[in-house]
Amino acid sequence: MKTKIQELRKKNKISQEELALAVGVTRQTITSIECEKYTASLELAYKIAKYFNSTIEDIFDFSEVEGVWNGKI
Amino acid sequence: MEKFRTALQKRLRLAGVYNGVLIVFIITGIAVGTRNSVPDLMIGFNTGFCIGIQLVMIYNISKYIAALKSDEKLTALYIAENDERNRFIEAQIGGKGINVILGALALGTAISGFINSVVFITMLCALMFSTLVKVVLKLYYNKKV
């Protein structure tokens, strides 16, 4: 799943390590989410969104899921 | 975090009890092996296996003690143990299930060493293969996820 985490991190000058510590995961998990290798759980997505004072929909791209709902995929 | 701190203290106490039992087990193993003329390979495996577990225990004990002394290390250990990606990988490779199988095989191998050499070697091969499968799957998922 595509995310804006890397973009937001760079904008706010936050390292992966800092974000990982703030949301209670390892740095590798943040790397995997940014590389679209791993999809964050609802709980982690909520924590990340809250950390950036944003919403889950603003950070995570749900267009693929919407495609499934609309019968496109 | 207090819950985790208590859990670590409990683990340390368990490790202490386990160390005591292990020392008795090693001494008994050597004594029984000498008296009943058990082949060297089996005594060697049992002793080596116990020493290996002991080393892992010493490593873990030192990690837990360090974590209990420093809040920073305690948080890092908590995150490492509860990280959702790590849990996902463990679930993919059959985590707890494969650990139970490995534990049972290791115990079976250690005990069979005093009874029958064919059973011992068969169980040792099964143990090595299962361990290899776990390691390969873990490396694969660590790269994939």
Order of helices and strands of chain B: HHHHHH
Number of helices of chain B: 6
Helix/sheet category of chain A: mainly alpha
The major β-sheet of chain A equals:
none
Strand content of chain A: under 5%
User: What is the C-alpha radius of gyration of chain B, as a whole number of Å?
Assistant: 18 Å
**Radius of gyration of chain A over all CA atoms, rounded:** 13 Å
**Largest interface pair:** A-B, 14 and 12 residues
> What distance separates the N and C termini of chain A?
15 Å
- The end-to-end distance of chain B, rounded to whole angstroms, is 28 Å
Report the mean per-residue pLDDT of chain B as an integer. Answer: 87
**Low-pLDDT ranges of chain A:** none
Helix and strand succession of chain A?
A: HHHHHH
Features:
heterodimer, A: 73 residues, mainly alpha, 6 helices, elongated, B: 145 residues
Topology:
The complex is a heterodimer of chains A (73) and B (145).
Chain A: H1 5-12, H2 16-23, H3 27-34, H4 42-51, H5 56-59, H6 63-69
Helix pairs in contact in A: 2-3
Chain B: H1 2-35, H2 40-69, H3 71-82, H4 84-92, H5 95-112, H6 117-144
Helix pairs in contact in B: 1-2, 2-3, 5-6
Concise summary:
The complex is a heterodimer of chains A (73) and B (145). Chain A has helices spanning 5-12, 16-23, 27-34, 42-51, 56-59, 63-69.
